[in-house]
Write a sequence for this structure.
């Protein structure tokens, strides 16, 4: 069924009895050309692009729970292309271009809102760093505007400009940045893949990976064995656990990143705001809730929930930036399991096992990367060659030390992202 305004009107006038399910719920077949482990945003977008770009539809996406129940539904929904390093900058620029045509290509409203993103800076050194970042963004064909203090005050008058500990010097404005509806992105890609014949198999946990003489043969699941010529691992914070089934130890740590949302308020925040001295970021959803987050919880965990210490830390940063936030009641919080790589940048690559492919290490960048991650991973699975936008995301950079992408300048080690 194709969605349209006319269709919505017709269904409303006829009792909404004509809607069909957005995707099927098939049983797994004994064999596929490609099996994708992980039914989150990255796995679903991979399946969609395998079908649309390469005509590969004998594909299964295996999800141990329900589609969109992982990190794709547990984030602060920010979309941006304001990366600095060669390799990352091109990739996220590619992703933003895909975002801008996503609703049309999926025939699905993912509520992509290019409301603009402002990264605040609080010192002369930060201003210089953001000026360099903005120049890199512009060189990729993206947009960046360096604002002084008066420019930020004009756009964000509700911030605390009188504080002396972290004074606001200005900000880097990225007009094409913004937000999208996280679960709608998963649903849109699921519907697109399913409509082209891809099997989306829920409640199907992978328990083993079958390998013979260095070649992948398929997977073992809670719903039986499934043979496959190629297997892609796209499981975010569970990457280390699933790769261990193939005898691999990945350079990945899994950490919890919390997000929070308040009660619904009248429109007050028009943009996405990132606070450079508190690792705090905030936007307002279409329902009026303030959506915000901060640092990871700084301890390894597979629990999709956070702790009160980090909740207090994030709230303190928010109060420092905009004291008015203290009047809002926090309704709920949630945690996503982040696959943190040593250099803060992702991995999209073949493994040493023939037919086994890896997509992980997204750290803080997972949601905004969903379109390009799937697009580039589909290219790799279909052609056995890296996509030009992701050619620097090699797995062996951690073994050789060549090509490390230390985006945040914190050193290529864990716990410093």
């Amino acid at each position: 069924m194709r969605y349209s305004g006319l269709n919505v009107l017709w269904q409303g006038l006829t009792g909404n009895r004509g809607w069909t399910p957005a995707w099927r719920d098939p049983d797994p077949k004994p064999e596929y050309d490609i099996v994708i482990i992980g039914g989150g945003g990255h796995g679903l977008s991979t399946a969609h692009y395998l079908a649309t770009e390469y005509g590969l539809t004998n594909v299964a996406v295996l999800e141990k729970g329900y589609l969109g129940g992982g990190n794709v539904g547990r984030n602060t929904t920010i979309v941006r292309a304001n990366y600095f390093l060669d390799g990352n900058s091109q990739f996220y620029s590619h992703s933003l271009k895909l975002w801008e045509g996503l609703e049309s290509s999926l025939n699905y409203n993912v509520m992509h809102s290019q409301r603009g993103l402002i990264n605040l800076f609080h010192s002369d050194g930060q201003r210089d760093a953001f000026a360099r970042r903005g120049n890199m963004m512009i060189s990729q064909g993206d947009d960046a505007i360096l604002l002084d203090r008066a420019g930020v005050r004009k756009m964000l008058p509700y911030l605390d400009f009188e504080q002396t500990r972290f004074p606001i010097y200005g900000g880097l404005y990225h007009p094409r940045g913004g937000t999208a509806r996280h679960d709608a992105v998963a649903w849109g890609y699921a519907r697109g893949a399913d409509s082209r014949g891809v099997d989306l198999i829920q409640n199907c946990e992978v328990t083993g990976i079958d390998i013979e003489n260095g070649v992948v043969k398929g997977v073992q699941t809670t719903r039986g064995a499934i043979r496959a010529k190629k297997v892609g691992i796209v499981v975010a914070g569970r990457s280390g656990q699933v790769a261990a089934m193939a005898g691999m130890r990945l350079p990945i740590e899994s950490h919890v990143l919390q997000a929070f949302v308040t009660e619904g308020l009248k429109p007050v925040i028009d943009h996405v705001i990132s606070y450079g001295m508190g690792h705090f970021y905030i936007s307002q959803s279409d329902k009026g809730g303030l959506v915000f987050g901060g640092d990871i919880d700084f301890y390894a965990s597979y629990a999709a929930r956070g702790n009160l210490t980090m909740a207090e830390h994030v709230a303190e940063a928010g109060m420092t930036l905009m004291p008015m936030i203290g009047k809002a009641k926090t309704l709920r919080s949630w945690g996503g399991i982040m696959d943190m790589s040593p250099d803060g940048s992702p991995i999209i690559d073949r493994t040493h096992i023939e037919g086994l492919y890896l997509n992980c290490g997204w750290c803080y960048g997972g949601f905004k990367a969903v379109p390009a991650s799937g697009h580039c991973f589909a290219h790799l699975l279909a052609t056995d060659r890296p996509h030009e936008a992701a050619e620097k995301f090699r797995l062996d950079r951690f073994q050789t030390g060549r090509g490390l992408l230390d985006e945040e300048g914190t050193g290529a080690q864990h716990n410093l992202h």
Notes: The mean pLDDT is 94. The first strand starts at residue 31 and ends at 37. The chain has two domains: 23-114+177-251+342-417, 115-176+253-340.
